[in-house]
């Protein structure tokens, strides 16, 4: 069977890497399964794209659609036009999409309209926040997929509530955590480690890129000032996303504790998470990685599509104001880390389960 794999943005590359390894494992067992890897070009910055292909040994994509950036509609439309051409020229049995970016939704739509089956990895998660472009991408993708590979029991429940047939829902675990386990023994300290006199637990790692936090310059600066004051004796390491950098301009304001660094490659970033005192972020994927690594995480959002990172893991949902962040962070300093565990099936084997299900259903 032929599978077309879609990857467009940083979190996609991290999720697709172990799926490719699982396909190659099936091939080595003599199973007839081949793949064609499509990079839509949604992320094209070296730091957000090529670095991940190199570090995670992802094969060179068979094609790059080079859509680059644009408004939501421009980007989605460009991906659809380019991917329709690609899929007509190179038909397959199944298009596999991951996560919740525009490439996920756009390619799922194209595939379905060409009567090709769609598998969605990380199906069913919902924040309930329709102002997030990702939430719309999730809902649309899940409304037309054929295989739903889920990371959590809450995702299963959401899908059932939307009327998804239970036979199509496969609770397999988390491919992002597959990548984490596959690379934990390769993580490496970043070159600024000495420059900023970093030591295990003497810094907090910060990432912010969601429009609700970064699109308005003055509130972003107020947020950073609040975090800077809260830091106490900890340094703050802030790998700054291009979107956030564009808002702050080329010369970021000076802060007492915050050190701005470039977006990090996967191996350096995992080293930074693993050795941090805590993480402050608005990323969904990072709250999963901190959960598995047992690192306290403070999510600067009002909702999460990954509730298990809070109920089972180390994540705290703190909203978007620094007042609430400071309150919850102080409680953590006083009481220490809440008792935390690892969600079911986040064991590094999700991709193998996915491949087993796909291959078996085509035999
Ligand atoms: N990440 C990284 N370098 C960075 C920031 C994030 O490698 O400088 C990784 C992070 O560990 C996670 C993924 O990128 O695996 C999350 O991407 P992002 O926050 O862009 O997406 P989200 O999870 O919010 O969809």
Summarize the SSE layout with pairings.
Blueprint: E1 2-7, H1 10-28, E2 34-39, H2 50-55, E3 63-64, H3 72-89, E4 94-98, H4 102-113, E5 117-121, H5 133-144, E6 147-150, H6 153-161, E7 169-171, H7 175-183, E8 203-207, H8 211-214, H9 217-230, E9 235-239, H10 242-248, E10 258-261, H11 266-274, E11 278-281, H12 284-293, E12 297-299, H13 308-311, E13 315-317, H14 322-335, H15 350-361
Parallel strand pairs: 1-2, 1-4, 2-3, 4-5, 5-6, 6-7, 8-9, 8-11, 9-10, 11-12, 12-13
Helix pairs in contact: 1-7, 1-15, 3-4, 4-5, 9-14
Bound molecules: uridine-5'-diphosphate (UDP).
- Main sheet characteristics: 7 strands, parallel
The main sheet orders its strands as 3-2-1-4-5-6-7
Radius of gyration, CA atoms, in whole angstroms: 20 Å
Report the uncertain regions: none
CATH fold-level name of the largest domain:
Rossmann fold
Query: What is the typical, i.e. mean, pLDDT?
Result: 95
Which second-level CATH architecture of the largest domain applies?
Answer: 3-Layer(aba) Sandwich
CATH superfamily of the largest domain: Glycogen Phosphorylase B
CATH class bucket of the largest domain: Alpha Beta
Distance between termini? 9 Å
Task: State the helix count.
Answer: 15
């Amino acid at each position: 069977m032929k599978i077309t794999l879609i990857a467009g943005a940083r979190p996609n590359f991290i999720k697709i890497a172990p799926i490719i390894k699982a396909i190659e494992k099936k091939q080595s067992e003599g199973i007839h399964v081949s793949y064609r890897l499509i990079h839509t070009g949604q992320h094209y910055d070296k730091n957000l794209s090529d670095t991940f292909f190199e570090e995670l040994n992802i094969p060179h994509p068979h094609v790059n659609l080079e859509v680059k950036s644009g408004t939501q509609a421009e980007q989605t439309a460009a991906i659809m036009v380019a991917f329709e051409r690609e899929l007509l020229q190179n038909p397959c049995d199944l298009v596999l999409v991951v996560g919740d970016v525009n490439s996920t939704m756009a390619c799922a739509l194209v595939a379905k309209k060409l009567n090709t089956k769609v598998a969605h990895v990380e199906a069913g998660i919902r924040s309930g926040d329709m102002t997030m472009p990702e939430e719309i991408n999730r809902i649309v993708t899940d409304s037309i997929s054929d295989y739903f590979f889920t990371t959590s029991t809450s995702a299963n429940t959401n899908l059932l509530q939307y009327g998804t047939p239970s036979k199509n829902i496969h609770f397999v675990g988390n491919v992002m955590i597959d990548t984490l386990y596959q690379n934990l023994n390769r993580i490496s300290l970043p070159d600024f480690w000495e420059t900023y006199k970093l030591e295990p637990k003497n810094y907090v790692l910060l990432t912010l890129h969601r429009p609700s936090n970064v699109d308005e310059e003055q509130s972003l600066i107020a947020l950073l000032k609040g975090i800077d004051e809260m830091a106490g004796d900890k340094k703050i390491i802030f790998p700054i996303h291009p979107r956030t950098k564009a808002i702050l301009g080329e010369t970021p304001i000076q802060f007492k504790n915050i050190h701005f660094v470039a977006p990090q490659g996967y191996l350096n970033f995992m080293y930074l998470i693993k050795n941090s005192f805590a993480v402050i972020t608005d990323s969904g994927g990072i709250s999963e990685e901190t959960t598995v690594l047992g690192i306290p995480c403070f999510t600067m959002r009002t909702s999460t599509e990954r509730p298990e990172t809070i109920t089972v893991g180390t994540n705290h949902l703190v909203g978007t104001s620094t007042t609430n962040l400071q309150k919850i962070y102080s409680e953590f300093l006083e009481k220490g880390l809440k008792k935390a565990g690892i969600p079911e099936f986040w064991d590094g084997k999700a991709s193998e389960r996915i491949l087993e299900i796909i291959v078996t259903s085509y035999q």
